[in-house]
Amino acid sequence: IIDDLLTNEVTPIVTLYHFDLPQALEDQGGWLSEAIIESFDKYAQFCFSTFGDRVKLWITINEANVLSMMAYDLGIFPPGVPHCGTGGYQAAHNLIKAHARSWHSYNSLFRKEQKGMVSISLFATWLEPADPNSVSDQEAAKRAITFHLDFFAKPIFIDGDYPEVVKSQIASMSQKQGYLSSRLPEFTEEEKKMIKGTADFFAVQYYTTRLIKYQENKKGELGILQDVEIEFFPDPSWKNVDWIYVVPWGVRKLLKYIKDTYNNPVIYITENGFPQSDPAPLDDTHRWEYFRQTFQELLKGTI
Question: With CB atoms 3.0 to 4.6 Å apart as the test, which of 90, 103, 194, 216 could cross-link to 198 if both were Cys?
Answer without folding.
Answer: 103
